[in-house]
Write a structure and sequence with these properties.
By secondary structure, the chain is mainly α. It has five helices and no strands. It is elongated, with a radius of gyration of 16 Å.
Length: about 80
């Protein structure tokens, strides 16, 4: 097996693993547009208590999602506009 094929296999295995983890732990709800809208009050309280850490965490997640071209980066953009 050459390195080109092994890299493709590793990528596929990682992606399948991520999908499995999301399904097993029920994380799909966090990637919907309704989740940020429903949890806005909780976020507002957390933001008031920990402004710097919340802004930093969002920035890191957003930069990673957009740089990796994750399809849900659009959802993160809209969620960011809801919260901020």
């Amino acid at each position: 097996m050459d390195s080109k094929n092994s890299k493709k296999i590793v990528i596929v295995v990682v992606l399948v693993g991520l999908v499995v983890v999301f399904r097993i732990f029920g994380l799909r709800g966090y990637l919907s547009l309704s989740h940020p809208k429903d949890s806005r009050e909780k976020f507002t309280r957390l933001y008031a208590a920990h402004k710097f850490s919340k802004i930093t965490a969002y920035m890191v997640r957003y930069i990673l999602a957009t740089s990796l071209s994750v399809p849900k980066a659009v959802v993160m953009t809209i969620a960011g506009s809801i919260f901020w």
